[in-house]
Sequence to fold (196 residues):
Amino acid sequence: MTTNELSASLLTKPASVTDMLKKLKVKKLLHYEPYKVFYLTAEGKKIALNIIRRHRLWEFFLVEKLAFGWDEVHEVAEELEHVGSKKLVDKLDSYLDFPKFDPHGDPIPDVNGKMSIVQQVNLTELPLNKLAQVTMVGSQSTELLELLSHKDITIGTKLEVKKKFSFDKSVEVKVKNLAPVNISEQLAKVLFVKPV
Fold:
């Protein structure tokens, strides 16, 4: 990724990104040269995976143990991920019985940074009348998760694509015993499924 790509993604100034990249380079957490792509060092990856692990474990805890909605947990987990106690995180992982995926279907790194992989396809690639199970949501925006909940679609939901419309690339899906619903191309592109 380039500095400009990262600044656009973070909605911040390129100069701010450059300053932070220089600081991370000094800490030997990434390889960086001006006007070139940059990437994490082995130590940088280890730290990043540890933060991801804490964040996703907290999301799992909030949904499974405190009955938060999957659309409510991201910001709370953003705060909790900064609690750096290794003992606390290891005990949380054990208490939760070592979950492999967070409530949005993203893999949770284990204590060694290893993650489970699910063979999945984008909903737009699923053949017609093939039963599949939702495994991941490619975005965690509150609005998207609210829309999916309204359509009775969550991680684990079984569905079938009944029709694909060439006009607008929308798809008609059948969920459980409900009447088929139309899903926009934009929504279909952020849903990932595995055939059942």
Q: What stands out?
A: The chain has a mean pLDDT of 93. The longest strand covers residues 158-164. The chain has seven helices and eight strands.
